[in-house]
Design a protein that fits this description.
The complex is a heterodimer of chains A (85) and B (119).
Chain A: H1 3-15, E1 19-24, E2 42-48, H2 57-75, E3 78-84
Chain B: H1 3-13, E1 16-20, H2 30-41, E2 47-50, H3 55-65, E3 72-75, E4 78-81, H4 83-92, H5 94-102, H6 108-117
Helix pairs in contact in B: 1-3, 2-4
Classes of the chains: A alpha+beta (85), B alpha+beta (119).
């Protein structure tokens, strides 16, 4: 499974978002540290879910990190998050 | 001294600390560069810790903050967040509020200019 699909699946399962986009931005970072040929290194996630309503910024990011798990996060180089409730 | 004690000493003995890849004058990653640029532009005095120069800190800071990515910003011993959070807080004015509350000096006009340029 592509890493972007894996990210989307885990976040859907954890937060039942009303909106989610997982964008592989690896090409924008071509040649930068952590970049690899073929993509799958730099991701941007836009997510909106009522589950985040009572969380501050840190808590929202921490919840997403936890849902993705250390193994997946360890595999990618960058994860930009845009989180809304 | 354990790595966590080293980190605790850094964040408690310096008002503003940025754990980053590279240095404030020569960042080596776009995300670190963005946060350093904001602080530089706002004229904030801060300590930059280059995690690429210290593997123990590079791993240790992730555990210490329970946060998997670099950069990481600390203000008066308190973890603020990474690149996305610092960017959002800069644009919303929350970073100014935090600096006001914690007694950290910064250039308010410069902060406003960042917001004007991104509105």
């Amino acid at each position: 499974m592509a890493t972007s699909d894996e990210i989307e699946q885990k976040l859907r399962a954890a937060f039942a978002p009303e909106h989610i986009e997982v964008i592989d931005e690896s090409e924008l970072h071509r040649g930068h540290a952590g970049w690899r040929e073929g993509g799958g290194t730099h991701f941007r996630v836009r997510i909106r879910a009522s589950a985040f309503a009572d969380m501050n910024r840190l808590a929202r990011h921490r919840a997403i990190h936890a849902a993705l798990g250390t193994e997946l996060i360890g595999r990618i180089h960058a994860l930009a998050l845009e989180v809304e409730a | 001294m354990s790595v966590h004690d080293r980190i605790r000493e850094m964040v408690e003995n310096n008002d503003v600390v940025l754990f980053m890849k590279g240095t404030k004058t020569m960042p080596q990653c776009g995300f670190s560069s963005r946060v350093a640029s904001v602080l530089n532009y706002m004229g904030v005095e801060y300590t930059d810790v280059n995690v690429l120069a210290d593997e123990e800190i590079r791993q240790g800071i992730k555990e210490y903050s329970d946060w998997p990515t670099i950069p990481q910003l600390y203000v008066k011993g308190e973890f603020v967040g990474g690149c996305d959070i610092v960017t959002e807080m800069t644009l919303s004015g929350e970073l100014d509020e935090l600096f006001d509350k914690k007694g950290v000096a910064y250039d308010k006009d410069a902060a406003n200019k960042i917001r004007e340029a991104n509105s």
